[in-house]
Design a protein that fits this description.
Keywords: Membrane, Transmembrane, Transmembrane helix. It is a single chain. By secondary structure, the protein is of the alpha+beta class. Helices cover about 15% and strands about 25% of the residues. It has an 8-stranded antiparallel beta barrel.
Length: about 270
């Protein structure tokens, strides 16, 4: 079979050309644009209208939102539109002036009461002064040179107080003695120290405290507390009625085998 030489297509008896001339579009078909796409208005999607033809659609742009940042109608968010700070709180009441006023009033009232009381007391005092002689509210001052209410105890006699040294005799034989007396006749304190002598070197050393007084010219001293007590030794008491400014002689009391003592002021 020979191919057709004319524009007639043997399969289309209508006589339409199966191969249209180059650059000529087929009947009923628009020419393709240079970009390769047909205009939207001419070629909508099958079964869908173009967006320009959608009912209710508007191409007019929306207005900008209000300054509050929301496009709601006025009054939607209350009296204060959003985006604004709340109104400031009412100022607090300052109570300082009120407190100062109360303090000043109290001071004024107190000053008035004090002044009234002072004047009242002053007037009463003046009236009492006019009615008769004034009585002293304090005792009289003691005149210089007058005797004091209580007389001091007399000092110890010169023959009692001081430091005395000598010897005394007891069972151990002659023993060295240093007697130190202090205080007054009514209350004396003393220290009794004993030690060996050249004639009796085997005597122990020791000491103790004494207390006593002088009554009717007689000295009496009694041992009270040990200061240094050697083994086998006991405290002894002293008494004397023979004392002067330089010497004192007496007896050893309260100890069997003891006799006398004799000391000299050192």
């Amino acid at each position: 079979m020979q191919p057709p030489t004319s524009g007639a297509d043997p399969y289309y008896p209508s006589g339409q050309s199966a191969y249209p001339a180059s650059g000529v579009p087929a009947s009923g078909a628009p020419a393709s644009p240079s970009s390769g796409y047909a205009p939207t208005s001419s070629f909508p999607a099958a079964g869908y209208p173009s967006y320009q033809e959608t009912p209710g659609y508007s191409t007019t742009p929306l207005p900008p939102p209000p300054p509050g940042g929301f496009a709601g109608a006025p009054g939607t968010y209350g009296a204060q539109p959003p985006g604004f700070p709340p109104p400031p709180a009412p100022p607090k009441r300052n109570l300082l002036p009120l407190i100062l006023g109360i303090v000043v009033a109290l001071i004024v009232v107190g000053a008035g009461c004090f002044g009234s009381g002072y004047l009242f007391g002053k007037n009463r005092g003046e009236a009492a002064a006019d009615s008769g002689p004034r009585v002293a509210a304090t005792p009289k001052t003691t005149t210089l040179g007058s005797a004091s209410p209580t007389a001091e105890a007399p000092a110890a006699q010169d023959g009692v107080t001081g430091t005395w040294k000598g010897t005394y005799t007891c069972n151990q034989g002659e023993t060295g003695l240093t007697l130190t007396i202090e205080g007054q006749d009514s209350a004396l304190t003393a220290t009794f120290e004993f030690y060996p002598t050249s004639s009796n070197p085997n005597v122990e050393k020791g000491s103790y405290k004494m207390g006593g007084n002088v009554t009717d010219g007689r000295l009496a001293l009694i041992g009270t507390d040990w200061i240094e007590q050697p083994a086998g030794y006991e405290m002894v008491d002293l008494s004397s009625s023979d004392f002067s400014g330089t010497t004192m002689n007496g007896t050893i009391d309260g100890a069997p085998g003891c006799t006398t003592f004799s000391v000299t002021r050192s």
